[in-house]
Specification:
The protein is mainly α and 204 residues long. 82% of the residues lie in helices and 0% in strands. The chain has one domain. It has 8 helices and no strands. α2 packs parallel to α7. The longest helix is centred in the C-terminal third of the chain and has 47 residues.
Length: 204
C-alpha cells in the first residue's frame, strides 16, 4: 500500500486528497510525509473514538507508524529510480499506484488488526450510514481534498481519478482479497491439523 502511495506521488499528476494533504504539510511546515501521516493519525484516532463512543484505538498509531516509515522509505528509493517525464509514463505510474493502494488496503483491512485511522473512519462511516465503502470513502476524500487545497498540496488529474476510482478499486478488491486470504488461512489450518494428526499417529 505504501509503495502505491509513493508511486502516485512520483507520478506528479496529483495524489489522493489525504496524501496531497500530507505532501502539502511536508512542503509548507517541514517534516517528512510519513511523519505527517503519524501526526494526522493521532488526530483521527480521537475523531474515530468520538464517533464510535468508545476508547481510542491506540494500536492504530502502530499501523500509522509502520505506514509512515513505509512511505518515506519508498519515496527515498523511488526518488532516483522513477522520475517519469512523459505524460503516458506518468499515467502508468499513477495507475500502478492506484492498484497497489487498493490491493494493499483491502488486504490489511481483512486482518481486522488496528487499521490506519483514516481507513477505520471509512469503516465507521460505512456502518453509521448503512452504505458501501465506495460512498464513505468518496465522502472522506472530498473532505480531505478541501483541506489539501488549503495547504497547496499536489492536486491534479490524478487526485480527481483517485476520488472517482479509489473507492471503486477498494470495493472491487475487498471480496477478492477476502477469498484469497480465506483460502490461504484454510489451507494453512488444514496443513497444521494434518501434521498434528500425522504426528499423533506416529506416536501411537
Amino acid at each position: 500500500m505504501t509503495l502505491g502511495v509513493s508511486f502516485t506521488i512520483q507520478s506528479d499528476l496529483g495524489t489522493s486528497p489525504f496524501d496531497a494533504l500530507l505532501v502539502g504539510l511536508s512542503i509548507n511546515a517541514g517534516l517528512t510525509v510519513g511523519s505527517w501521516e503519524i501526526i494526522l493519525a493521532f488526530i483521527l484516532i480521537g475523531c474515530n473514538s468520538l464517533l464510535k463512543r468508545q476508547r481510542p484505538e491506540v494500536l492504530g498509531l502502530l499501523t500509522a507508524f509502520i505506514t509512515g516509515i513505509g512511505i518515506d522509505m519508498w519515496l527515498f528509493i523511488l526518488h532516483n529510480l522513477i522520475t517519469p517525464e512523459l505524460w503516458y509514463s506518468k499515467v502508468v505510474c499513477l495507475g500502478i499506484g492506484l492498484v497497489f493502494i487498493g490491493l494493499g488496503t483491502a488486504t490489511y483491512l481483512h486482518t481486522n488488526f488496528a487499521p490506519i485511522p483514516i481507513d477505520r473512519l471509512t469503516l465507521i462511516l460505512q456502518e453509521l450510514t448503512g452504505t458501501n465503502i465506495f460512498y464513505s470513502r468518496t465522502f472522506i476524500y472530498f473532505v480531505f481534498l478541501i483541506m489539501a487545497m488549503i495547504v497547496n498540496g499536489p492536486i491534479g488529474v490524478g487526485t480527481l481519478l483517485t476520488v472517482c476510482l479509489g473507492g471503486l478499486i477498494l470495493n472491487y478488491f475487498m471480496p477478492f482479497t477476502e477469498r484469497v486470504l480465506d483460502c490461504i488461512l484454510t489451507h494453512s489450518s488444514t496443513s497444521s491439523n494434518y501434521a498434528g494428526d500425522k504426528e499423533s499417529g506416529t506416536k501411537l
